Amino acid sequence: MIREDGIYYYCNLSSPFIFDGEALKYIDYDLDIKVYPDMTFNLLDEDEYERHRKEMKYPEVIDQILKANVDKLIRWIRQRKGPFAPDFIDIWYERYLTYRR
Prior knowledge:
Layout: E1 2-3, E2 6-7, E3 9-14, E4 18-19, E5 24-25, E6 28-35, E7 41-44, H1 46-55, H2 60-79, H3 88-100
Antiparallel strand pairs: 1-2, 3-6, 4-5, 6-7
């Protein structure tokens, strides 16, 4: 999210998507990370994830995969890697502006 006070990120953890010929489908696992312009972050909706994990009986392997990917995402944020790299937004925003015309 590009705002006047800086760039914010909202990261949803989900299953890989599939295209069934009509629509993209995926499972949103409720866990989200909000990243602020100063690169501090909050892990959101852990309680919602726990409730759904129990209600829907997510297998242990899914829980392990999700937790490993939360850890990986946090490492990327801290290392300013991937979409969190300083020039990433500038590059892609310029590309957007180019193709928008």
